[in-house]
Amino acid sequence: MQLERKRETAIPFWRDERILKILGQIVFALLVLIVGALIYQNMQAGLAKQGISLSYSFLNGVSGFDLAESAFPYDRNSTYWQAFLAGLLNTLSVGVAGIVFSTILGVILGVARLSTNFIVNRLATFYLELIRNLSLLVFLIFWYLGVFLKLPRVKDAVVWPGDIILTNRGVGIPWGIPTASFPTFRLILLGGLIVAIIVFFALRAYSKRTGRAPLTLLWSLLAFAFVAVAGWFLLPVKPLTLDLTFVKGLNLSGGKILSPEFLALTSGLVLYTAAFIGEVVRAGIQSVSKGQVEASRALGLNSFQTLRLIVFPQALRVIIPPLTSQYLNLVKNSSLAIAVGYPDVFYVSNTILNQTGRAVEMISLVMLTYLMFSLLTSVLMNWYNQRIKLVER
Amino acid sequence: MRKSYSILAIGAILAIVLTACGTAAPAPAPETVTKVETVVVEVTSSAPVVVAPTGYGVTLKAVMERGNLICGVNSQVPGFGYVDANGNFAGIDVDYCRALAAAIFGDPTKVEFRPVTAAERFTALQSGEIDILSRNTTWSLVRDTELGGNFVHTTFYDGQGMMVPKDSGIATLQDLEGGTVCVQTGTTTELNLADVMASLGVTYTPAVFEDADATFAAYAEGRCDAVTTDKSGLVSRRSVLPDPANHVILDVTMSKEPLGPMVRHGDDQWFDIAQWTVFALFSGEEFGITSANVDDMRASATAPEVRRMLGLEGDLGLKLGLTNDFAYNVIKMVGNYEEVYNRNLGPDTPTYIPRGYNSLYTDGGLLYSPPFR
């Protein structure tokens, strides 16, 4: 025993595994640092050689170009920064709309894929197999050139029921315009939200006390809707008036006009990503073992309760991580907007790059933006994942 | 052996030291004297000395070593730079590249055409990916300074125009009130459009696309009421629209668009070569030298400037770092400006554009070459 220990302590440091491991880490870190410094120096030297200096101050200059779409008033007198911001907001709106609609469609597809109805099942399978094996860029161009630009011209505009105007300049939908009583209505909505939150926590407390499982979210939503509807009808002047889209001169006017570029990009992204989400959802539901369902039925839960209380909470744990990566894909894929002429952040940055010749600055800014978008999405999804994770005792 | 070498070496060093000191040392003198002589001979035999700042001559040297010229061109605008039915590059900007290759190598095929988009062209030039940019690029102050380039000379005087479908009833820019205009991103066109519309007080929506193909495809689909780019571009793109006769170019000129090749800052020799290749094309037309008669002209020319230009008198080509017959090669192999113009934009082509400003100054145009002297 003693002899052995002596021998152990006598091991020289270059054969000591613990020291070697630490040394390895240090050497690796140094290598990374050296390579990074070399790359940076190389860039600096290259730029200096071409007489280019790095600076972001040009972003305060007047842009001089117009944008097709912007969330805030933007014209040629605005700065490059404002152009960039407009692009950022456009990306955000595509990202949010894309995530919401692709989730809804994806869940429907995933459930349909497991349906016992032959036609529903086969249709969903056909759709998934078709879409998942297409190139997204081709798919987007199909939607743009093949669908939205093939809509009737403005002078032959088609009106659908619900006063939806279809043209190849955009699709116009009725939209509300705030009236004098809108500020009051906003307060009522806020009150509704408070009521909904109260209902939510009351039902949760009730659930904890009795062990029953009321439809917490549904009741909260109903409470909110009730307050909102009551407020709408009790106010003497309606808070919103309906604004219809109409053809005015060469273009559409009034209401909410969705450009063909936005529609092509969003519908392309939604239909594409939904196919992947459908598979994620199916995999999640199938991962819950049959025994769980059988046990819940034996306990007397009906099929809806089984889905809501047994299958879905367990399936979610499997669904969330791959779902997160699908969301990230959607946001990153939105940079393909350039192919259909939608002014997203990448597109606008590209325009700024062309007009100023500031390649390194603009590309680094765009990379940082997408990194930020992706990290933000992951942080939110990880937080949610943490919450629904199985609590192990 | 070794010993004898070292003795020799010592002798040589001694000799150098001695000559350096200026003392007369007759015995080992011959060796050192010949050395000095060869150096002197080399200096006198080299081309006329030009005071060279750093960067001077590096481009020509690199091109010579590589054995071909890399030219950034357009591949989508018929008449200027595009790929023809046989898969060859053609167009006035493309022929300029061929002329430059002929001036440098005496061989117009020693050029590699690299298609660049409007967006990437300046970066490609700055980073040295291409030797020269010849891609219907508008000369402007920002491009001449901040983008690190020098415009060589205007090879085509153009102006921005607007094209509309014939049945639209649009005749002026004011008629576009509330309309949509298709435009390509990263161009001066995009900025001019915003400028002109703002000054006219016309509200419009731009529909902006990545390249010329996408812009005109959207226009053909009726995505926009009008499409704008340089008038030459409109003429050339109209020729490839599904129904060319149904589109008219409005009688308005929205800007000055002097188009020409562009080189990097910092190499004046390369700039001079590029510029005098343009002037060789102009002068060829002015003196009536064509690819057909250039050999006769060289044999019988008496006018001193023609003789100087064709390399029969003086050493103008050597001053540029080229051979004396560079202008002869340009005209023999590519033709003069008129030949190049007619081949790409002449009356027999589908992209016919009347010469207008692009005529010689003697015909009331703007083409004017400094003297070959």
3D architecture notes:
The complex is a heterodimer of chains A (393) and B (373). In chain A, 66% of the residues lie in helices and 7% in strands. With 393 residues, chain A is an alpha+beta fold. Chain A has 2 domains: 2-48; 80-174 and 244-388, Orthogonal Bundle (MetI-like fold), CATH 1.10.3720. In chain A, the strands form 3 sheets. Chain A has a 4-stranded antiparallel sheet. Chain A has a two-stranded antiparallel sheet with strand order 4-5. Chain A is globular. The model of chain A has no long low-confidence stretch (mean pLDDT 87). Chain B has 373 residues and is α/β, with parallel strands linked by helices. Chain B folds into 3 domains: 2-45, no CATH class; 58-155 and 260-363, Periplasmic binding protein-like II (D-Maltodextrin-Binding Protein, domain 2, 3-Layer(aba) Sandwich); 160-254, 3-Layer(aba) Sandwich (D-Maltodextrin-Binding Protein, domain 2), CATH 3.40.190. Helices cover 41% and strands 15% of the residues of chain B. Chain B has helices at residues 2-21, 29-45, 58-66, 92-105, 121-126, 141-145, 188-200, 212-220, 231-238, 268-286, 294-300, 304-309, 316-319, 326-333, 337-345; strands at residues 69-73, 76-77, 81-83, 89-90, 111-115, 132-133, 149-151, 156-165, 180-184, 205-209, 226-230, 247-249, 256-259, 262-264. In chain B, the strands form 4 sheets. In chain B, strands 8, 9, 10, 11, 12 and 13 form a 6-stranded mixed sheet that branches. Chain B is globular. The interface between A and B is large, with 37 and 42 residues.
Task: Please specify the SSE layout and strand pairing.
The complex is a heterodimer of chains A (393) and B (373).
Chain A lengths: L1 H8 L7 H33 L30 H34 L4 H15 L3 H12 L10 E3 L3 E4 L2 E4 L1 E4 L3 H29 L5 H19 L5 E4 L2 E3 L2 E3 L2 E3 L1 H28 L2 H9 L4 H31 L11 H12 L2 H30 L5
Antiparallel strand pairs in A: 1-2, 2-3, 3-8, 4-5, 6-7
Chain B lengths: L1 H20 L7 H17 L12 H9 L2 E5 L2 E2 L3 E3 L5 E2 L1 H14 L5 E5 L5 H6 L5 E2 L7 H5 L3 E3 L4 E10 L14 E5 L3 H13 L4 E5 L2 H9 L5 E5 H8 L8 E3 L6 E4 L2 E3 L3 H19 L7 H7 L3 H6 L6 H4 L6 H8 L3 H9 L28
Parallel strand pairs in B: 1-5, 1-6, 9-10, 9-11
Antiparallel strand pairs in B: 2-3, 3-4, 7-14, 8-11, 8-12, 8-13
